[in-house]
Amino acid sequence: MFKKITNFFVIPLAIIGMLVLALYPSAKLDINDYSTAGLELDFNMSDRVEDTTTEEVEVVFEIQEQEPVVYYPVLGKSYIGFREAVGFKESRGDYFTVNSYGYLGKYQFGSETLKMIGIYNSNHFLFNPELQEKAFLANAERNKWILRKDIKRFEGETINGIKVTESGILAAAHLAGAGSVKKFLRSYGSNNFSDAYGTTVKHYMKKFGGYDTSSVKANRKAKARI
Which of 178, 63, 52, 60 shows the shortest CA–CA distance to 113? Predict the structure, then answer.
């Protein structure tokens, strides 16, 4: 009985003693080791900070608030540059817009023109940017075929102060149709069609002249397919 009681007290005390020895730090913290006595400390603000002017502070904030520089691709006078310039003029590049006369998309196509290049579902066309790009090219190819003789005859000439170029002719045909462009060229500018907003064949021929549209192939049966 006595042996059991001894074991009951001795063993826990031994364990506690071992824990105390293991956790007790071998060295005491000496606060004097962290004293600043003898050090030269200067808590005064520098003269440079005190002398900073309001103008200098404003310049710093102005630099920090400048907007990040955004770089845009330079398309130049390439076919893509031509296409994007026309699209921006027609709709500011908005694929999903419909104007007050019902013309659709980035290039403001009418439903009858779309039918001529194989598109019969206007709603599907409006919400399909890839199809709109195909439609622009197909329409340009078709117009180039219709106007092939006029391009050959008038390109490089000056009519009403406008130098006639292939890209100007194709842009004007996009605006007014190939027939209206023929009338303008063959009347030497006296027959100058304008659309419902007052934009003329002459204006488009000037605005979009000088682009490289040689990649547009004349095609009487051009269709927009994806």
Answer: 178
